Amino acid sequence: MPTKLELLQAIADLQSREPTYNTCEKLATFYTLLSVLYSDDQENVRSVTMNIFPDIAGAFGEVISGKQIDKVIDVLNEHFEVVKVLFPKEYDAVISRISEIQ
Fold first, then answer.
1. d(CA 41, CA 52)
2. CA of 65: how far to CAs of 8, 43, 55, in Å?
3. For the chain, which residues make up each domain, given as ranges?
4. CA gap 44, 15 in Å, rounded
5. Between the CA of residue 2 and those of 28, 33, 92, what are the distances in Å?
6. pLDDT tens, residue by residue, 1-47
7. CB-based contacts of 80, cutoff 8 Å, min separation 6
8. CA–CA separation, 53 vs 91, rounded Å?
9. Is the pTM of this model over 0.85?
């Protein structure tokens, strides 16, 4: 069984790499293991999670820095529901671009 330190080191290593499907899949696995095996320290898991994309530039990157990713995604999802209704072409364009990401 991996230690908490080993999992945190593996996560840090993957975060420094190019974000590919493979690295994201491994990150998800390591975060799950960290959460299940060491659930007594959830705050540490959340703080590590928010460092997945440290190089996001601009105001958006500054605003989400240090936030819990699940809560950020919830806000974005709510916003995109509004965009879907008010600006369906823009919504479709964004969804299409995201779908094309490998």
1. 18
2. 19, 15, 10
3. 1-66, 68-102
4. 16
5. 15, 9, 42
6. 788 888 888 888 888 888 788 888 888 888 888 887 877 655 555 45
7. 91, 94
8. 23
9. no
Which amino acid is located at 4 in the chain? Answer: K
Our CA angle for 91, 96, 102, nearest 5°, is 140
- CB atoms near residue 6 (< 10 Å): 13
Amino acid in position 7: L
pLDDT band at 93 (very low <50, low <70, confident <90, very high): very high
Query: Encoding tokens for residue 93?
Result: 């364009």
Name the one residue in this structure whose structure tokens are 């945190």. 8
Please state, rounded to an integer, the average pLDDT across all residues of the chain: 79
Q: Whose structure tokens read 């999992």?
A: 7
